[in-house]
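User: Before I run my own analysis I want an independent prediction to cross-check against. Here's the chain; please return only the structure tokens and, at the end, one sentence I can use as a sanity check.
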Amino acid sequence: MSLPAASMPLRVYVSRDASALALGADATARAIEAVARERGIAIDLVRTGSRGMFWLEPLVEVEVATNGASTRIGYGPVAARDVAGLFDAGFTRAGAHPARVGPVESLDWLARQDRLCFARVGVTDPLGIADYVAHGGFRGLRNALAMAPADIVKVVIDSGLRGRGGAAFPTGLKWKTVLDAPVTQPAAGPQPSKYVVCNADEGDSGTFSDRMLMEGDPLCLVEGMTIAGIAVGATQGYIYLRSEYPHARRALDAAIANAYAAGWLGADIRGSGRRFDLEVRIGAGAYICGEETSLLDSLEGKRGQVRFKPPLPAIKGLFGRPTVVNNVISLASVPLILERGAAYYRDYGVGRSRGTLPIQLAGNLKRTGLVEKAFGVTLRELLYDWGGGSYSGRPIRAVQVGGPLGAYLPESQFDTPLDYEAFASIGAMLGHGGIVAFDDSVDMAEQARHAMEFCAVESCGKCTPCRIGSTRGVEVLDRLRAGIDRERQLALLEDLCTTMRHASLCALGGLTPDPVTSALKHFREDFGISTPRE
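Assistant: Structure tokens:
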């Protein structure tokens, strides 16, 4: 027998995303429970992922009935000391309060987004199987279980999904290569013949979408990896997780356990006769292990160093077997594609950049957080319409897109649309979708030096151009900034960058010149150079 509506506990939502926790969300949640208990108010406190509006965290949402439908009213930021006042103001009935932001789903910042991958993040209980299923979860996997592997791969190819980890390689083509790869190595006992590996070693500056997805909707990643395994004939998956993500690890471990218990993982997935097993493995704490072959070496228990290619990991990857290596967002995009079809996903975006990209706004901005938008939105729109301009109130002078190896873009390029080819045409890259903004107080010569120093510290050491070139690059930039024989240093730096770009074994050394040369091109005055670059 169901309880009358008046006796149902009030549902209150507070994020347990790492960013919200850092801002005091746990203390706020405890205070809500304590005050409700003192006042005899029955509540059902649900800990969710973050909506991505970090300037409002800790964000508290209360579910109220409006015209026969439930609406979630938001209040934020709410510190523990604010909770009693929130109850005094009648927040349980959506009462007025300085922190009240109104119906969360109707907020312009959220309403103008295209939330496909992040549709459940901030909405559902991240670990609840029933909540996940109620919000569309496992529909894609159900469809996949009824399909032939080649048909699953074709759907992913037709969707236009490209890798969201930086290289933007077509996801479906990588899967097809693994599916078609012959397994020539002799089996060693029960060792799987093929693998699916998730690269969750999110290490680029200004990026946090992987973490938010894993903490806020980990079952989506579980589902995406399981679909990948069925598609290519792999029975074992590993999530290679950044060591600095303890909250994500707990969420993933719990989600995987719940998926096993509900029959969505294991030897006989939902009675289909298909098998897929999944584990979390913790990374080595090295930036280079974000490169797929270094990751595989680390996963095998070796020192993380870049492998020579060929052979590609899709042919000879983990333990010498054909292996799919995809980023978190790539894999988490797959369930929706299998649920709604390739055309649905492909209809978002522009040119060869299909679907959506979770864009992370960081640095000197008023409103930092995560925006999921179809490809084609411009940097200027993101920086001002969503980011609100600089936090300092000063002009935004430069942005770096794509992590520590991304080019620095000046204000004259802020109208560039987020599109892989459009960014390549201006010598930049989208990478993982992280945007770090700088106001006009930034020293771009110092930023260029930071890029070279970062490479020197994080190099795996296997190739000379990266290992030695980055160290010499720091020295050249120091002499250039000190005004020592500037023309000679400029010529030397140009030669050094050319060597690193074309002779490095992987993208760490090959892309390090991009922030340096872009800073020199657009911000020469910071290097003490008055002549324009040709």
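Sanity check: The chain has 21 helices and 16 strands.
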